[in-house]
Amino acid sequence: MNQSALDRSILGGFAKGPVIATKEALSFWGGVDPATGSVIDVHHPLHGTCLTGGIVMMPSSRGSCTGSGVLLDLVLTGRAPAALVFSEAEDVLTLGALIASEMFGKPLPVLRLGPEAFAALARAKTAVLSDTAVVADGLEIPIAPPATAALDLTASDRAMLEGRQGIAVQQAMRIICAMAEQQGAHGLVDVMQGHIDGCIYASPANLTFAEKMADMGARVRIPTTMNAISVDRANWQTQGVPSTFGAPAARLADAYVRMGCRPTFTCSPYLLDSAPRAGESIAWAESNAVIFANTVLGARTAKHPDFLDLCIALTARAPLSGVYLDEHRKARRIIDIELPEQVDDAFWPLIGYLAGRRAPDRIPLLRGLGPAQPTQDDLKALCAAFGTTSAAPMLHVEGVTPEAAGAARDDADRASISRTDMAAAWTVLNGGPEEVELVAIGSPHASLSECRALAEVLAGRRRHADVAVIVTAGRQVISDARNEGLLGRLEEAGVQVLPDLCWCSISEPLFPTHTRALITNSGKYAHYGPGLSGRAVRFSNLADCVTAALTGRVAARLPEWLS
Q1: Secondary element (H or E) of residue 11
Q2: Residues identified as active-site
């Protein structure tokens, strides 16, 4: 095959193995089991496939920023793919591979191929990769070397890169510059605040990285909040969490606090008093938070992978690329949505989920939703569900979000979401049994208004004895709920409100071990829950969740606005 400028090495190295190709992006966090290397996302075409030792091909990654930590752990335990091959720009898994090489001396090749070469390689059974070519079943694809664009660094940047501000800052700046080069950036941008996603104990690799940086004297230089962690930091020992999990998870949180991060432990940092203003450049990780910040708040942040989030917080500098730049915040796809009458709260995560399916690799503009007048909670649910099925760091909602006017590029293509599409997606996400033993609320972390809504629908009634009702929320929301008397009302109804954790990081025994099926009003957890929990998961509105809480069952049916 002739040399193409599109066929390029991102991270070099040698690899050989069977070709494992898919047309659908995959989130490694919630999608791949780090203990086995197998795909656990039940909605993905590769479900059940072991990726270890394979030449894994997909358009890009999607979903959680924590995928970089999962990949790093796979590398360090010998369960990683032999190489990664993408057809689109990709940061999360690339960063995990970069950390493996830079900090642990374990390279994992990453390539980006143009459409012709990608399609040809995807048809092969096995492949051998080198720095200069891919050879597969008689096919040879010449590969260009990694991009080496010169970065326009300030004197302060160069001082950090040369180690004049300590070894941890030097290592952080090396990683930032390497990512900037592969993204095609020509410089770096100042950021005002950070949000750390790498504090989730996705794997031992997260702890190894954090403690290594902390031991090198790392200290954040901008206000930096922390995502939900994997244990209730103050109570995990009394809750029966095994020390083999609880101790390293708590150590991971402590490492970031030692580095100066604020122990907010929430995946909804936009609910805090420190939420950024429109136009501010920030450096957030956690996919739902990134999408909400760009989409609803009008702030500017790339979807920074775990580990890069800390590097940026240590330097206050990020690659000047992607949605930090005006031209990359435009919509490349317009999605026209058929708006049913009298939609309820379940409509918004369902639309976010479908919008991500329609725009898995680009920013969309959603049309037709304005008359429904979504609340901040509605947009929160929409953004979170969108992030499970799309790699894009933001979207626009015509007539609703701050940058939607004029957001569509002149060459934007078109797609649509019909009532038929909604009904089909509802059926996919709501396929469990009528009987449930668990109601899961708070993915992302519940807001104060969502807690109020739950208390109002419960109306002083108490949950069924065989059903657990658990809400995950940030410490600030829980404190406000306590001051308002709201927390007491929820607890009287038998609702357990947990701090620090969120549903994507909860494990047994806090996740009730007797559960066979659960119901949630979160599109995000409806997607990730089956793979993460091993249980049947149903998706519905808050009213159905409360019906399940009170009776232990709820009929599997379409909502009234789709019937």
Answers
A1: strand 8-11
A2: 64
Does residue 283 share a domain with residue 220?
A: yes
Closest CA to 99 of 216, 210, 215: 210
In-domain check, residue 558:
no
**Residues forming a β-bridge with 164:** none
Query: What distance in Å separates the CA atoms of residue 357 and residue 346, rounded to the nearest whole number?
Result: 17
Give the domain-ending residue among 392, 410, 426: 426
Cα–Cα separations (whole angstroms), residue 513 to 32, 247, 467, 506, 533? 22, 21, 12, 12, 10
- Cα(167)–Cα(176) distance, integer angstroms: 14
Within 8 A by CB and 6+ apart from 380, the residues are 268, 270, 288, 292, 296, 444, 447
561 in any annotated domain: no
Instruction: List, in order, residues 6 or more apart from 311 with CB less than 8 Å away.
Output: 171, 172, 173, 175, 176
pLDDT per residue over 332-384, tens digit each?
Answer: 999 999 999 999 999 999 999 999 999 999 999 999 999 999 999 999 999 99
Q: Whole-prediction pTM value? A: 0.92
Q: Are 96 and 120 in contact (CB under 8 A)?
A: no
Range(s) of the domain holding residue 364? 330-426
Structural domain count, the chain: 4
Pair 210, 172 in one domain:
yes
> Is the residue at 1 inside a domain?
no
The pLDDT assigned to 457 comes to 96
User: Does 313 lie in the same domain as 348?
Assistant: no
Residue 256 counted as domain residue = yes
Amino acid at 402: P
CA distances in angstroms from 511 to 438, 501, 527, listed in the order given: 9, 11, 17
